[in-house]
Amino acid sequence: MSKTLISIADLKRDIESMRTANERVAFVPTMGALHEGHLSLVKEARNHADRVVVSIFVNPLQFGPQEDFAKYPRTLKEDIALLDGVDVIWAPNAAELYPDHFQTNVTNRKMSSHLCGAARPGHFDGVLTVVMKFFNIVQPDIAVFGKKDFQQFKLIEQMVKDLSLKINVIGAPIVREQDGLAMSSRNRYLSVDDRADATRIYQGLQKAKELYKKGSRNKQELVDTCREVIVSSKKFAVEYIEICDVNTLSIVEEKSTEKSTTQIPDEPVVMLVAARLGQTRLIDNMEF
Ligand code: PAF
Fold it and tell me: What pTM was estimated for this model as a whole?
């Protein structure tokens, strides 16, 4: 049975004794409602450290006023059972993390402004602020994040670089259901019918990737291919489909060549999708 701690002081005491024993600490922040995807992050963390600390905290700072903070699944008991074998589970409370008069944010000025950042104003400020706070409290050697939230992962990498933190940030591959749907805590919001349609995002990405592999560098064609598959279910409202540079996350611009006016550069890119299916907002991505 893992140890579950609530207060910052208790957690710091445990971390201190790990440090005294010269142990490497890996940290996996989560919002709970755990699934196989989270467990793969824990496994990855284990490969890199002697001790693994997992936080479970539904961070109010990263939800907009119209978003699902109140109904976000909270399944602490089940989560603790799933994390059996983890050294420390930390389930802090909001009152201690954000006492009255809390007033400082971490803001990214560039990479957070497009994709999910455009649709969810303030979201990434909330994420970066809580993650920075966690990093300061846990002081891990390693931190593991899922690449399903690709923009979040890149923003955290950037924050660590910009603010000179001595933390090795690792991005873990997306874990998918058998039909390809990227695992997410929010998948449990989907009705049975919507769940059946949800896989179209993955199928769209796959189809675009196949086209890319066959040599297409026509951005419009790749985006349209993906979109067509998704909107073949009328229930989808696509928020964005973009192709970005894997390293900088800047949107790849089409370049003119003699043959075509819509070539994307032949460099590693990632195609990212956000779409609403009923009330549920789904995101996914695929690296080409
Ligand atoms: O990806 C998440 O679950 C959250 O955004 C994180 C990183 C735990 C911060 O609240």
Answer: 0.96
Q: Residue 238: phi, psi to the nearest 5? A: -75, 130
In the numeric block, which tokens belong to residue 217?
Answer: 């560098």
282 with 276: CB under 8 angstroms? yes
Predicted confidence (pLDDT) per residue in 76-86, tens digit: 999 999 999 99
How far, CA to CA in Å, does 169 sit from each of 101, 148, 191?
30, 15, 35
Residue 151 banded pLDDT, cuts 50, 70, 90 = very high
**Beta strand segments in 141-216, E:** 142-146, 168-172
pLDDT per position as a tens digit, 203-218 = 999 999 999 999 999 9
Catalytic pick among 35, 38, 48, 123: 38
d(CA 285, CA 245): 12
Neighbours of 131 (CB within 10 A): 24
Distances 135 to 17, 54, 91, 111, 198 between C-alpha atoms, Å: 17, 12, 15, 20, 34
Distance, CA 56 to ligand 1 centroid (Å)? 9
Q: Which residues have C-beta atoms less than 6 Å from ligand 1?
A: 29-31, 59, 62, 127, 130-131, 149, 152
The atom number, within ligand 1, closest to the CA of 185 reads 3
CA of 64 to the centre of ligand 1 (A): 14
Output the CA–CA distances (angstroms, integers) from residue 9 to 5, 59, 203, 225, 227, in the order listed: 9, 19, 47, 52, 49
8 A C-beta contact, residue 94 and residue 62? no
Q: Which residue has the tokens 């003699």?
A: 258
Respond yes or no: is residue 38 known to be catalytic. yes
Ligand 1 atom at minimal distance to the Cα of residue 131: 9
CB 40 within 8 A of CB 12: no
